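Lab notebook, bench 4. The sequencing result for the construct came back, and we need a structural model before the next group meeting so we can plan mutations. Quick request posted to the team channel:

Model the 3D structure of this chain.
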Amino acid sequence: MNTQLVFARTDKGASELGSRKYHLPQRLRIVLILVDGKSNVAQLRGKAQSLAELESLLEDLAIQGFIQTNSPSWDRRVGVGTPRAHNETERRRRSANSKFTPVKARLINVAILTFGANAENVVKKFQDAPGSWRGLEAAITDCTKLAGLVFDAKKAEEFESKCWQILSKAVHTTLQGA
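Done. Here's the predicted structure in token form:
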């Protein structure tokens, strides 16, 4: 994991600290408490010396949506702060994809956590993916193939597994809400 990444709590993360709504295990809760939006991963390691698996715990919290990086490059990758749509077609396209935006953001997060500064092409594939379950499935498959070519097979396999976990949770949540 890139040791210069800085994580901040999301609204979901702040909610968990205040209410314990999501019943995080103790180790994840400790890391969530340490995340302050100012300390990078290297600094968090210094604060959490007793947690040998700090990076894995940060990754779990990010995948579950409790934390995210708060760097300008992260904001651009997930589409935060992008200019408003100027025409009606673009507005309709964005609103149709809005239900998939959080899922895409989590997939992009996994790419950045897994590949660091080399995640640009994978991130772009997720950003350009159609806003549908099939579109996201195809993007995961394409990104895994790309990762296998650019990185090693083990890293691509790890990435693919995490992406399918995110997509499965999102589908399950959607089906429960229906």
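The first strand starts at residue 7 and ends at 9.
Will bring this to the meeting.
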